[in-house]
Amino acid sequence: MKRSLTVHFILICVCSCSLFAQTSIDTTGIRNTLEEILNRDQKTRTGKDSAAFMRYIDSTNLVQVELLIAKYGWMGRSFVGDRGNSALFFVIQHADLATQLKYVSLLEKSVEVGESRPSNLALLQDRILMRQGKKQIYGSQVVYSETGEQIFYQIEDEKNVNIRRAKMGMQPLEDYAKLFGIEYKLPEQ
After folding, report:
1. 126, 18, 142, 30: which is closest to 81 by C-alpha?
2. Which residues contact 132 (CB under 8 A, 6 or more apart)?
3. Residue of 28, 84, 93, 101 with fewest CB within 10 Å of its CB?
4. Within this chain, do residues 61 and 112 fall inside the same structural domain, yes or no?
5. Range of the domain at 159
6. Are residues 61 and 142 in the same domain?
7. Rounded-to-integer distance, Cα 118 and Cα 144, Å
8. 104 with 46, same domain?
9. Does the model's pTM come out above 0.90?
């Protein structure tokens, strides 16, 4: 009987310890993974890697990011740093419309609590609207005209776009346009 009580006592102690033990999260490992994902994502878009592999790279990045989001939720800057948080955004920004719609609300909540950049949300919202055939809100999406030059996709209430951009921490559209070699002037009031 004494031996049985001792065994039970030991089992209770072992089980109690494992019940109350905190699981540590390897944030360094997660940050490193997201850094690799961000680097792969951007390499094909900056000419440092073959654009022919862009879809494959985007799809493998998405698999990894979706696994991380399923486990940890939308990881904010305080958890994975600014670059890690940006990696999540870029992978979702470069995904298909269904995936973008699936995650936009998580990004919205992250922005609301100051864990993600409002400008990233603006870019994703504009990309979604463009893919839905609707006018964009912030003027972040550029397309090619029939003559092959870059132009802004249609903008809702274009004369007030810079007011909306400023609220999201974005530069005026005239300055943003220069990044694409676009000469732009706001429509007259």
Report:
1. 30
2. 97
3. 28
4. yes
5. 135-189
6. no
7. 26
8. yes
9. no
| Half-sphere CA count of 114, side-chain side, radius 13 A | 1
Q: Tell me the three-class secondary structure of the chain, residue by residue.
A: CHHHHHHHHHHHHHHHHHHHCCCCCCHHHHHHHHHHHHHHHHHCCCCCCCHHHHHHHHHHHHHHHHHHHHHHCCCCHHHHHHHHHHHHHHHHHCCCHHHHHHHHHHHHHHHHCCCCCHHHHHHHHHHHHHHCCCCECCCCCEEECCCCCEEECCECCHHHHHHHHHHCCCCCHHHHHHCCCCCCCCCCC
Domain assignment present for residue 73? The answer is yes
Quote the pLDDT of residue 6.
Answer: 53
Query: Quick one: 34 and 111 in the same domain?
Result: yes
Q: Angle between the 54-72 and 27-43 helix axes, to the nearest 10 degrees? A: 160
Please check whether residues 32 and 104 belong to one and the same domain: yes
The token pair at 176 is: 């943003």
Tokens of 172: 């005026």
Give the end of a domain, one of 72, 87, 116.
116
CA dist., res. 130 & res. 35, Å (int)? 28
Is residue 130 assigned to a domain? no
- Would you say how long the chain is, in residues? 189
Whether 12 is in a domain gets the answer no
Over the stretch 5-36, which tens digit does the pLDDT of each residue have?
Answer: 454 444 445 444 444 444 678 889 999 999 99
